[in-house]
Amino acid sequence: MRRRGDTVDYILREVHEGINAQHMGGRSLARKALRAGYYWPTMQQDAKDHVKKCDKCQRHGDMHL
User: Fold this and answer.
1) Residue 65 belongs to some domain of the structure
2) Range of the structural domain that residue 35 is part of
3) Does any domain span residue 46?
4) On the chain, which terminus has fewer CB atoms closer than 10 Å, C or N?
5) What is the dihedral sign for C-alpha 61, 47, 23, 53?
6) What pLDDT score was predicted for residue 1?
7) Cβ pair 36, 43 in contact under 8 A
8) Contact assessment for residue 44 and residue 26, using Cβ atoms and an 8 Å cutoff
9) Within a domain: residue 32?
């Protein structure tokens, strides 16, 4: 059986980097996962954290100063 964290990471990775990858920001990622039928209490923060760890987003994303 998979740990909850592994499942959350898998869902966020698939939505963020999967076949239709758009590398959206944290809020958009959480909304897209919600529309796909997923929900967990820490979804918003988990999505933001996932985007912060994404190498492509950090290299090519907009800079917010």
Assistant:
1) no
2) 4-60
3) yes
4) C
5) positive
6) 39
7) no
8) yes
9) yes
